[in-house]
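Design request, tokens follow.
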């Protein structure tokens, strides 16, 4: 993997997410993918679970702020702004790529204004 390949993957992810293109999940993720919407959540396992999850037609803007890459492991920082209602998120995505360029393990670390960063 290189940063250009990661960038292309993120661009396609954004397009598929924006279009609610559930079949694109099969091009983005391996069959045995584990997709965690938070590091402590149970993973969505496999294409069908992610396809069912990807059904959010709310309009949004997304921008990639940075990509860090080590072999097949990438960390991507993205800023997402939903509209209707307005909500900003700053996310870190951990992406473990398979040799074929699809992601086999995805972990999202999402934060938003006002969210506590402590356990109290």
């Amino acid at each position: 993997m290189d940063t250009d390949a990661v960038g292309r993957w993120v661009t396609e992810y954004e397009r598929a997410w924006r279009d609610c293109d559930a079949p694109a999940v099969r091009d983005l993720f391996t069959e045995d993918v584990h997709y965690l919407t938070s590091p402590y959540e149970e993973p969505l396992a496999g294409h069908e679970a992610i396809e069912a999850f990807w059904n959010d037609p709310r309009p949004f803007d997304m921008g990639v702020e940075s990509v860090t890459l080590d072999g097949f492991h990438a960390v991507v920082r993205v800023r997402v702004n939903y509209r209707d209602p307005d909500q900003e998120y700053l996310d870190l995505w951990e992406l473990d790529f398979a040799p074929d360029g699809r992601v086999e393990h995805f972990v999202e670390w999402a934060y938003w204004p006002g969210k506590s960063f402590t356990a109290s």
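Comment from the thread starter after seeing the answer: thanks! The radius of gyration is 14 Å.
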